[in-house]
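Re-run with default settings, no changes from the original entry. Doing this only to confirm the output is reproducible before filing.
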Amino acid sequence: MTATSKGHAISARDLLPSGEQRKKLRKIRHAKDLTTRAVVSAAGYGVVISLALIFVFLFIEVAPLLRNASLGDPVSYPVPGSDADTMYLASERYQEAAVRFARDGTVSFFDPTDGRPLLNRVIDFQGGEVTSFGSGEPRTGLVAYGLSDGRAAVIQHEYDLSFPDDVRLVTPKLTLPLGEEVVVIDEQGQALDVIAIQQGATGIGIAASTRDGRLLLTRYASRRSFLTGETEFVRSSYELPAPPAAPTRILLDITMRILLVGDAQGFLHYYDIQQPAQARLLDSQRVLDSAGASVSAMEYLLGTVSVIVGGSDGSVAQYFLVRDENNIGRITQIRTFRSHAGAITSIFPEFSRKGFVVGDASGGLGLHYGTSASTLFIREVSDNPITNASVAPRNNALMWTDGTRQVHYASLWNRHPESSFTALWNRVWYEGRSQPDFVWQSSSATDEFEPKFSLVPLSVGTLKAAFYAMLFAMPLAIFGAIYTAYFMSPKMRGFVKPTIELMEALPTVILGFLAGLWLAPFVESHLPATFSILLLLPVFMLAFAWLWSLAPKALRFLVPPGWEAALLIPVILLTGWLCVSLSPVIEVWFFDGSMRQWFTEVGITYDQRNALVVGIAMGFAVIPTIFSIAEDAVFNVPKHLTQGSLALGATPWQTVIGIVLLTASPGIFSAVMIGFGRAVGETMIVLMATGNSPVVNFNIFEGMRTLSANIAVEMPEAAVGGTHYRLLFLAALVLFGFTFVLNTIAEVVRQRLRAKYSSL
């Protein structure tokens, strides 16, 4: 009973809510439960929907990489100019003008979309008859007619671009790059059966095979007059060793150092013409396996490093020179493409990529890409042999002739031929390399660069960075969490745990900055100290703990239970100081004064910004996450379990190992996987502390490039919608997949551990 201020007695029953009040409270509680359940469910579904939308967005950007090349419906119209056979077709980048070179010397410019004539010119062969035809790299617009009297007509087609009244106007024109229409190649006047022409930095080169079997090389070195400013050409001619069989195709590279000859017996011959007067036949290789097959077409890809060889048996293969142990280039088959149904009659390389279009004698038109080893399509477009084929400079249209006195034009979709499973995930043999390899190198300073888009170095780098970070962070975080939750005094725990959790708020860009500019140079100059600290610190800590256990009880009782960890602070500082102080002495005693140089001498590569530095820096970023979750898991182990274990005679450490760790294992495992997931996605630390070298190894002394860092570095410079841009989104999708798989595995394992030990 209680009393009010007026002295009236009030019973406990009077303080209880009435029936109506209880009913109202139950309704309010039920409403709160429903609201809370709805909010939590909505938040959960929101997270799932957000993840799904991220995946959908990434996939939308990546989807065009999976689309196959396609050819539109062709438009056909009569060949412009004369009815003579077509020797060459090409177009300019805006598809407003194209050019056709005919056998009789007629050069016709026309609109490639409808055949409307724009300009006609006739080359004066000065009495000679056409016996051969050759063209340089498509970008140069350079062509040559070989004549029956040992001369050659050299012409260049160009396009002037202007904007009168803000309207684009493309004006085609012909020029004479050598200053005269016809030049002498063979002083003996023999017919030029095969001819090749190429323009490089040093001038123009012309190679030809004569009717009587000689192989000639004529070079026109350009020289600008100091007084008049006009370009003059200095002519020099050479006779090269004759090939073993009659040539069917000759090629010159843009450096004027390499000459390739394909012959009627299916061989490819390599001449070193760096010094034409001492030109040598260095290598000959059979490139066609079929009996009686001959090299029917042959063209350089962009940059004139790789050569595409087409055979009379319909085979298509890529070759380039690979240096042997004697530093001599050997003709090496790099990859083959799907064979055509008929003999290869025409090969035309792309202007800005490593792709090419192929025409065959059965009327088939094929599109192939070198780096990705892809045959994008082979389509029968005619009942007659394809005599000429060409691809537009922007790779958005094809033109071809088939002996029917018509030109055929079709739009083309082929935006991302560089991407294929082979190019992204397998070893690829890139131009200029001695063997296939995993390489990521998306850009270079030259237009002839072959992009290298292997995702393997980035994926390995991501796992490498995460592995070494976890190797550093896991022992410290988990053991620290166990000690803090189970052995440390509550007052000290209240100071230590918030301090470590506060570390998680430290921006990772600061950690990366410190790692790159301070830690990396420090580790490099104190390598013995670094390894000494890692090895000796645990030893000294255990030694001190053992000595402390031998100390008199009176001394030990001066330290309250749970505060023993504070005694290790001087030990840690003293050990670190001792190791750093002795580092120069250790280098002199054991490593001849430089441990880094010793690494080099024993064959170990050491980069200043390496996985060791990243592991330490990223470990500090990951430790708070693992520590916080693991500490909560250990601290929340039911007290009756630990008290029961201690009551049965188990020591505290036996209780930790037999009871606490098993019960807290789901939480500890979740902490590790969440920490690993964060390490996989970390950007700024690896961006600033790794050197960003995309290598495929787990050497702790070398750097790496991760998926996230690569996206951060290259996304600003990637052209929107281009292959590079979409491959960066693919890298993001791979990274998303990594974290999704890791989190899924973590949840599955956590649930199984929870079910297994829930009965404790």
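The chain has a mean pLDDT of 90. The first strand starts at residue 2 and ends at 3.
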